[in-house]
Amino acid sequence: MKDFALELGCLGFTMRLKRLSDALMHDGRKMYKELGVDIEPNWYVVFRLLKREGEMSVMEIAEKIKLAHPSVITLTNKMMKAGYLSSAQCTDDNRRRLLTLTQKAHDQLPRLEQIWNAGERGVIKALEGTDFMEMFALIEARFGEKGFKDRTIDELNKPTL
């Protein structure tokens, strides 16, 4: 059976990105379960960021990883529930809460970093011989300059010959 997303060409682009993301997340969950690690695949970025920065607000995390604030709240709330993050009110601004890694997170980091480093090596091997990361950076930059909505509206407003 033919892959309809491939048949769509450029219009299938977001569907294919979503499909790849879903496959990687599903495989990541299976890997962590098999290894006996109780984290979600998308938590690694918060672990690594807070390890480097020490403490950050949800808004700061969202800005650093370029995710929507509500998405970061959902992610960090799950991490807190699992015991990997703690939250404290900012002394300068009571509206802000600062997140830090817990002792449980610090205890797990050596094993997690071992897994993430192996994962990185695996991805590098999978992408070997391609310019995928450069191309992906270019796509992100171009859509960062001018989004899909504006590009589509510009095309709609072009005079037809």
Automatic annotation (TrEMBL):
Organism's domain of life? Bacteria
Alphabetized SMART domains for the sequence: HTH_MARR (SM00347)
Q: Which InterPro entries match?
A: HTH_MarR-typ, WH-like_DNA-bd_sf, WH_DNA-bd_sf
Signal sequence bounds:
none
Q: Which residues form the HTH marR-type domain?
A: 33-135
One Pfam family it belongs to: MarR
Q: What is this protein called?
A: MarR family winged helix-turn-helix transcriptional regulator
Organism (species): Marinoscillum luteum
